[in-house]
Amino acid sequence: xxxxxxPLTSDDTxxxxxxxxxxxxxxxxxxxTPTQAVGAEPSLPEDVVIGMxxxxxxxxxxxxxxxVDLVVGRNxxxxxxxxxxxxxxxxLRTINRMNDLVPGFRVEGRITFDDVDLYGPGVDAVEVxxxxxxxxxxxxxxxxxxxxxxxxxxxxxxxRGDLDALVETSLQRAxxxxxxxxxxxxxxxxxxxxxxxxxCIARAIATEPEIILMDEPCSALDPRATLQIEDLxxxxxxxxxxxxxxxxxxxxxxxxxxTVFMTMGEDRAGYIVEADETARIFTQPKHQLxxxxxxxxxx
Amino acid sequence: MAAAAPPVxxxxxxxxxxxxxxxxxxFYGLCILAVAILLLAILILLVDVFVLxxxxxxxxxxxxxxxxxxxxxxxxxxxxxxxxxxxxxxxxAFPIGLAAAISLEEYAxxxxxxxxxxxxxxxxxxxxxxxxxxxxxxxxVRTLSLGYTLISGALTLALLILPIxxxxxxxxxRAVPGTQREAAYALGATRWQVVRGAVLPSAAAGILTGIxxxxxxxxxxAAPLIxxxxxxxxxxxxxxxxGGYTVLPIQIxxxxxxxxxxxxxxxxxxxIVLLVLLVILDILAVVLRIxxxxxxxx
Lengths: 299, 298
Description:
The complex is a heterodimer of chains A (299) and B (298).
Chain A: H1 10-13, E1 48-59, E2 62-73, E3 77-81, H2 88-95, E4 105-113, E5 116-117, H3 125-131, E6 132-135, H4 146-156, H5 163-173, H6 177-180, H7 193-205, E7 211-215, H8 223-236, E8 241-245, H9 249-255, E9 258-264, E10 270-277, H10 278-283, H11 288-294
Parallel strand pairs in A: 3-8, 3-9, 6-7, 7-8
Antiparallel strand pairs in A: 1-2, 1-4, 4-5, 9-10
Helix pairs in contact in A: 4-5, 4-7, 5-7, 7-8
Chain B: H1 17-53, H2 59-63, H3 76-107, H4 112-124, H5 129-143, H6 150-174, H7 178-186, H8 191-219, H9 223-227, H10 248-256, H11 261-292
């Protein structure tokens, strides 16, 4: 099994835990057993950072996502999974208001960040994006030095402290420092794909966000780099809340605490089928659609 | 063919590889021919100019002023005029052109009006330069009362090269991947910070190329300048705000239109000086381009 294949290929049809790519690291974190009994109500995170109530998202007249109720727990990893085109990325990019940049994009319903309406009148998208960082599908470092890549966010946001120290801390938290500490002046573009993605994570961390959104951060990476990023995600959650979109079922199972399964209806609008502890989604899903998807019978 | 196929079946492929390759070779030959014609034309032109002009090239020619006696004639007023004119043109055209390009490419919404505007800027770069001369005469010389001065000429040329600067700058900015803009936005950059920090540095090399192209265009123009005061026989160094200036192309035109053979030689020598200026600009462009794009590869 490969983790770099495009969406909706054999990749998604393998049941979790069956993969063989992980020879690079033989012992995988086991999928934990659900803490709740079969048939119990879905568990909800106690400390909610992001809340969505009745959220529908449209591009012009096309409704991409409808009727989403969702909570994201603090210092946890929430995975969004589902077939291509079901609106996972749209939903993710709504959290840091990146979709504001798309002409014709509309939000209905209520999205809160620490109980503040993200799309409320006094809320500035620029400030939202500093506090909710983002890592993209394809590594997109700036064509400038490694140092300047990390320093960009702090600089544009008027950082007043010790920039060198912030750059170092950010690179350390992104598990990249040891590889680049002697070549901070070299171009970020000269790094390998996996290193570039960790550079992008360091760059996101440098603005000291509370939440980091990741849009299929490993889809352009090889299996080894993918595992490095997954390790990193598990480490980062002690400090940050992470929401990750992934097409890789095993990645969701390995790296996330909660999994949200989305699919799309007849009207091509995506909706949430089920959201629960990751272990329950993968072992005792409530919905047949979820079961079919995570076990590879659908999607 | 597989053995199981019907024995009488027509072959399903007729490769004819020899014929296909021959066609390719023939096309390549035509391309070479086209290049050869082009090179030959340039070569003949250059040889002609150099044969005529080199005997007249010396220090006195560069530092002298025009004279009725070909042996005493020099091009200093034209050389200084060209350099001053281009310098002022650049100072005026580049900030305006770049700002217009940023506004159209990064800020303007994709409305019908803006699309029309963009299309018309492209059309402007195809307007004959003499038209700009007439416009310059009406606006700068007459309406703004700047007179037949070097500044009028520079402003006219600035208008002439604005569309080139705008279009090439817009293209350079469009070539910067959207993922770069997204990266900057996602870090909490404002629109201007995105432009300043993510778009312009990556587009700098392309913008610079456009600017050098525009300068090359400006330095070679004669027609519009005739209308706004450039004259062929100036024996003093120009000052921007007072009348009477000349530039290299006008000097060439003046000498080349005289019947005496010696003046033809002077015109050829001036062409060589103009060519050298252009080559220097090109080298500058290449060097700057390499320096600016050293880190940039997508």
